[in-house]
Design a protein that fits this description.
Radius of gyration: 22 Å
CATH architecture of the domain at 94-320: 3-Layer(aba) Sandwich
Strand order of the largest sheet: 2-8-7-6-5-3-4
Number of strands: 13
CATH topology of the domain at 94-320: Aspartate Aminotransferase, domain 2
Distance between the termini: 36 Å
Helix content: 25-40%
Largest sheet: 7 strands, mixed
Shape: globular
Length: 425
């Protein structure tokens, strides 16, 4: 090991505060020393230092960040410290600082952020909150995660809405054309992923949201893979809602997320799940009839009750960690690794089918592929036998494989998977 775990635990509070000396002890001095400066995407010495901040097993090659992003030690320690403080001293409300911090990170206002436990919860809040009637049309992709598929299918079952589908094209322009071709006078919602979980294509969400706005349609974005993978400015994107999580590219605690609801859209998205914090404080049970008050004049109307101190302190620490490196630096590094993965997969002269577009704006850190003549389940199992963790993609019969890389990865790890493909074909 490059660093001493016992010393790490002994000096945990200093690490949680990002003290430069403690970062040096973890061979990650540049994480702080380079703050605010441009880091080359191929500065392997720097990114190797960053890797030391993650408790990833050295026995496994982890190429599945699209499912779970492992948290670095400062995030883990921040969670532990906050939870201990709550249990030792009864501290409460540590999550109050999280909506403003998330808002600044994603280009929103603090009163537009609702705390959630995952993307699926945020999507459900938006899906069930928008006013739809029988025959109203909702546009989805053929590459949906179950979390953005089942809520709308359930509304179809219960309320008679109509689901229309498009398959993302190999260019952003053609994708936009396919969406536009589906729009009719009955279209009410475009509920599309920013980056589909299947093959990681970056969809032209800003243009999609503009198209929706021009036609009086709601734009509800599944942002599971946006936060932490790339810089976000949700105001500039122009979406009505954006549901995301902290446990993937943000490298934060599992079981945390957020829902952005544009301020002007909050009176359109009906709140149903009520509790402490969701109202304006003017209710009165003693009057007759009972005074119900009003909803909170913010996205707090969508979440209420006790939240986990440790987890949301961890979200704050995850944002601090990302910003200590720089989201632009992170985006450039992981996009570079994604391009390297594409280039290696394309070397197989047609024996490997790359499903993710090579168009510059339509690719980033996730790639989907099929190995011709090789069952995708068998190759997934083979990777497991060689301690390489990727993802099998059965969604909607796509039946492919997915590899997703983050800042703790390097080209050698991608090459291990490529070597296994060579043995399989």
């Amino acid at each position: 090991m490059i660093f001493n775990r016992r010393n790490f635990i002994r000096s945990a509070s200093a690490i949680a505060a990002f003290t430069l000396n403690e970062m040096q002890a973890l061979a990650a001095k540049h994480t702080i020393a380079q703050k605010g400066r441009v880091i080359s995407d191929d500065d392997e010495a720097y990114w190797s230092n960053v890797r030391q901040l993650f408790p990833l097993s050295k026995e496994w090659t982890y190429l599945n960040n699209g499912t779970f992003g492992p948290s670095p030690y400062p995030v883990i320690e921040a969670m532990r410290t906050s939870q201990m403080d709550a249990d030792m001293y009864g501290n409460y409300g540590a999550y109050d600082s999280t909506p403003p911090k998330i808002a600044r990170f994603v280009g929103a206002d603090h009163d537009e952020i609702a705390l959630t436990h995952n993307v699926t919860e945020g999507i459900n809040l938006a899906c069930w909150g928008v006013p739809l009637s029988k025959g109203d049309e909702v546009i989805l992709t053929t590459h949906e995660h179950v979390g953005n598929m089942m809520p709308w299918m359930n509304r179809q079952k219960l309320h008679g809405i109509v689901i229309k589908k498009y398959t993302p094209a190999h260019t952003a322009h053609e994708t936009l054309n396919r969406i536009n071709a589906l729009i009719t006078k009955n279209t009410r919602v475009i509920a599309t992923p920013h980056i589909p979980c299947t093959q990681g294509q970056v969809l032209p969400v800003k243009e999609i949201c503009q198209l929706a706005r021009d036609k009086g349609i709601f734009s509800l974005i599944d942002g599971a893979h946006g936060s932490g993978m790339m810089p976000l400015d949700l105001h500039d994107m122009g979406c009505d809602t954006y549901a995301s999580c902290s446990h993937k590219w943000m490298l934060g605690p599992k079981g945390t997320g957020y829902l952005y609801v544009r301020k002007e859209f909050q009176d359109t998205v009906q709140a149903f799940y009520m509790g402490g914090g969701t109202d304006d404080g003017k209710w009165d049970l003693m009057t007759n009839p009972v005074t119900t008050g009003d909803y909170a004049h913010s996205a707090h109307r969508y979440f209420g009750g006790t939240q986990a101190n440790g987890l949301y302190t961890g979200v704050n620490a995850a944002i601090d960690f990302i910003e200590s490196i720089g989201i632009e630096n992170i985006h450039n590094r992981i996009k570079s690794l994604g391009k390297y993965t594409q280039d290696r997969l394309l070397e197989f002269d047609g024996k490997v089918e790359l499903l993710t577009p090579t168009e510059e704006r339509s690719r980033c850190a996730v790639n989907g592929f099929r190995i011709k003549g090789v069952d995708y389940h068998k190759f997934f199992d083979l990777c497991g036998e060689h301690k390489i963790r990727i993802r099998a993609v059965p969604e909607n019969g796509i039946d492919c494989l997915r590899v997703s890389t983050h800042i703790y990865n390097n080209k050698d790890e991608v090459d291990k998977m490529i070597a296994l493909i060579k043995k399989s074909i």
